[in-house]
Amino acid sequence: MKNASTRRLALAAGLIIVLALVGAAQTQAEKAFLGSWKGTISIMSQTLEIRLVFTADAAKKLAGTFDSISQGATGLKVVNIAVAGKAISFGLDPAAVPGNATFKGTLDAVGTKIAGDFGQAGYTGTFSVEKEKPQK
């Protein structure tokens, strides 16, 4: 009986350590995306100037806002953010932006550009943003 309890305790401790390491790795990957990014969306022969701002929320999870500078829409909530290494995917709040707007991009090798695919209302295009330097 004592050996079974000891094994369960060791297994639980090991599981906690593994989960903590996975969480730490996720946090490190997400940190690369923090900050303000400015660029464009190209869709249906149109190019729109955009800005993305990724921050860490109170739970240290990635959160964000989206501005369509060309259309005068600012502070739109970014939802469903998923990061896997240098890949990121996210959408825009469907309550504020119709058509299921989705982004799937990849961070470049130096960490200053995200580029990839954009889709909305059945149309597809591309997006590309570059990290903005913090203002002093």
CATH H-level superfamily: Calycin beta-barrel core domain
**How would you spell out the order of helices and strands?**
HEEEEEEEE
Q: Considering DSSP H and I runs of 4 or more, what fraction of the residues is helical?
A: 10-25%
| Architecture (CATH level 2) name | Beta Barrel
Radius of gyration: 19 Å
Overall outline:
globular
Question: Low-confidence stretches at least 5 residues in length (pLDDT < 50)?
Answer: 11-26
Strand order of the largest sheet: 1-2-3-4-5-6-7-8
Mean pLDDT over the full residue set: 85
Q: Give me the CATH fold name.
A: Lipocalin
CATH class: Mainly Beta
Number of helices: 1
Beta-strand fraction estimate: over 45%
Query: What would you call the quaternary organization?
Result: single chain
Number of domains: 1
Distance between the first and last residues' Cα: 64 Å
Most strands sheet? 8 strands, antiparallel, barrel
Number of strands: 8
